[in-house]
């Protein structure tokens, strides 16, 4: 999802934006990370009803897999995240998107656990997505790629995990769309998930959330440079539309209070309003910056696909209309977390999951974390989040019989 | 983890632990930061889950590796299936619920057995304070003023026995504890315990 938000443009990445876009294009086909290819003999079944082959999944790993292969943690990334959870992103040159959470001595401790993080299906950093080459035509898929779902993303990850020789994951963790994948993992492969940590997420995408996504998609599709999804062939990029989509989405990741505290009605590099439509206010300048930097690292069609995947997610409907059915007889240990000012995935959504887990008599912990930073809090420096994650994983590691990092003490992130 | 010395634990916790069979599935409602849960896990090897209204308490418990959810007994117990646990435990929480009768009924539904501990409002010191001062009692066990107490539904041991009758529960075991949390080691009619017991622990099941 978003990087740490700041009022001023973040430090200039060591790669120029125009170059960034071409680096991003390279990374779609040939990522700097690890890559698992699946040939025609190993197709990926899709919820849509078709099969995808050949296909590939780009992933990164951290730490060492133990001899019994019992210490693997899969981290699922959010909407526009990537596999570089704890290492530098080759496109932006920025540190890993969750390096406060994942790393040596961090709550998801790479000294003790083996961490896997894969780019989602439909993404644009090496896993098969709309920017990949369609083997049938030799051209970019564009909208010819079948629409993918959270279920498809998880099925592709399960194939990766299997290919890595891991039978059971010690834990699956993730926030937002990553949290949806966590819930899907627990519902689809309960025997493969020892512990599950869905953060700032929910069992379905709400009507309001679908609405915001639709605004974003319409912005992309209204850009003449989108060319009905065939912009690659035309040598164009719908940067205006994608930028607006990102601006709208970014508002949903923050809270009213955090916007107010950060920007208020402060003016941008001027002492008075200009009676024009330039970015008079800091918040406008900030959003424009967010939009502009986003288009250099993200593919517009990919944005359509991943937002759609979230929209289609509805775990209860997929289980006969009763959410508890998704978790019946589950032996997975759950730790559900939400944030007080998150209005994109409010606490009530997490509580629905918790109630369903209780109804299924599953082992569940639930923590609501006090934060003023809205949905994005899960990516930020939130000591209570780290403390809970560390404590929960430590308890689960004990139950799993693998060495746990420390005793639940909080290590302050750098 | 070091073995916990039961003698140093809160009186009702000691007896609660005695009431629980090793290895059982336990839900502790109103678990606070999870002290009793930890004790039950260490001394009885239970599969323990907790439940509390306090966000701070729950966060603390989860960060220590316990399985605890935030919720309140009055509204959230309905989600659990029948017989979900071997024991549903309510330690010093009944008097803080909005609807103690409905909570007790829920406990009897989701737990095969139910353990309840509560402060006895019928203790002679409480009666004496009310009689002599004409003021709501404030004691070691009931340290709050009437206006800031979370304890909104006090009862006496005899009240609780009557409520158990009313919700069709059978009393399997009961213990009264003195001011120091020690077991009152003799059998006596309810009215005697009701006078000298500072708190009581009951083990119930459905009739």
UniProtKB/TrEMBL annotation, chain A:
Amino acids binding substrate: 246, 376
Compartments reported by the entry: Cytoplasm
Segments forming domain AB hydrolase-1: 71-380
Record keywords: Acyltransferase, Amino-acid biosynthesis, Cytoplasm, Methionine biosynthesis, Transferase
GO biological process, alphabetically ordered: homoserine metabolic process; methionine biosynthetic process
Keyword Nucleotide-binding: no
Gene3D superfamilies per the UniProt record, alphabetical: 1.10.1740.110, alpha/beta hydrolase
Record bears the keyword NADP: no
GO cellular component terms, semicolon-separated: cytoplasm
Reaction it catalyzes: L-homoserine + acetyl-CoA = O-acetyl-L-homoserine + CoA
MF GO annotations: homoserine O-acetyltransferase activity
Domain of life the protein comes from: Bacteria
Family of the protein in this entry: Belongs to the AB hydrolase superfamily. MetX family.
Subunit structure: Homodimer.
Protein name: Homoserine O-acetyltransferase
Provenance organism: Pseudovibrio axinellae
TrEMBL record, chain B:
Domain of life of the native organism: Bacteria
Gene3D superfamilies: Vaccinia Virus protein VP39
Stated name of the protein: Ubiquinone/menaquinone biosynthesis C-methyltransferase UbiE
GO terms assigned for molecular function: demethylmenaquinone methyltransferase activity
Annotated GO biological process: methylation
Claim: Methyltransferase is one of the keywords in the record: yes
InterPro entries assigned: Methionine_synth_MetW (IPR010743), SAM-dependent_MTases_sf (IPR029063)
Enzyme Commission numbers on file: 2.1.1.163
Pfam families according to UniProt: MetW (PF07021)
Keywords, in A-Z order: Methyltransferase, Transferase, Ubiquinone
